[in-house]
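Check this.
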Amino acid sequence: MRTLLLAFLAVLVLGVGAVLVPRDVGKPQAVPFSETARSEALSSTETLLGSASLLESTDTVMLLTSQAQALLQPSGPPASSTPTATPSLRATQDRPTRAGFVSALSASASRRLADAANADGGMARLLAAVGTAQLLESSRLATNWGLPLPATRPGECRPAPPPSCPASTGTSTTAPTPGTAPTQADLPGALAAVVSSEQEAIYAYQVALTKLDAKASATATTWLARHQELLRGAEAQGRLHCIATPPREAGYRLPATFAAKPGLALGSMESSSLTAYADLVALSEGETRQWAIDGLVDAAKRSQAWGTPVGPFAGLAVDGKALPRCRAALRVHRKAFLCWRQQIPSAWLVPWLPSKLQPCTRTNHTPTTSPTGSTGSGRRPWRQ
């Protein structure tokens, strides 16, 4: 009987062991480049967000908060609404210098733009939008803080596209009808939108030259030449991909405010062109995508120079209320509040502050000199 029991146990152990021995699964699956680029962008943006909060740059904190929320993994678990406990501000991170922060923000922008050239379509558009906004913000901060402007990427000398389509002319994509809005869900539509945008910009700048003052007119002359160059480049990209681009029109309808405020109208026009370039980034690749990224950055710079802000996402319309909550942003806002709270005596907290901002509450508004809990006539102790 004992022999049979031992034999049964041996068979059971061998059977279980045979099941538990892992099979050779080979090399682990490589992480896609787009996911790696997104993760690195999120980590960098969260680090910059912490530094911006220490420098008390409110506008930059808001910009980086929105970007960090957009870079969160869509399928990831939702961030907790309760921030984790953190030590004091000085204990967790040294206060950065303004020059160091501007340099780090500019470096992050350059990395995002470089990764956008190799990422998948949708992620490429997001990285290009984030990188462009960070680049503009670094320049804005440098100007406001009296620092040298951060070094930008030198323009790469890329060979010009071939002057004609290598395929037969009969295979060219038909150009959209002038005056209609082509679909931008494919490369021909996105490229046609860029061509139309540049054609309208050239017309607007030509009209604006007669209405601007001397200084603004000189700037407009330079940028008119740039738009003419961009139009030639867009048409060359069309020939490269065998796409017939929209023909040039005689004129365009300008906004009613153009005559009174031509500079503001030009800024609005430059801002509206960002969407076309961002779409082209997502729907193209290789040389064409890099050309679109450069065009997106240039258009954003011109928009900001004319006084039209770009926002945290150049060329993307993002609903901030629909973005997931970011743990890093919650920690930053909590740190900022704790820093503010440490600088204000408890007796200074006044009843018109919202209850959520009152770390300590009491039942009446009589100032007290004893926050330790001792009570007096007509008073109740502070409670944490």
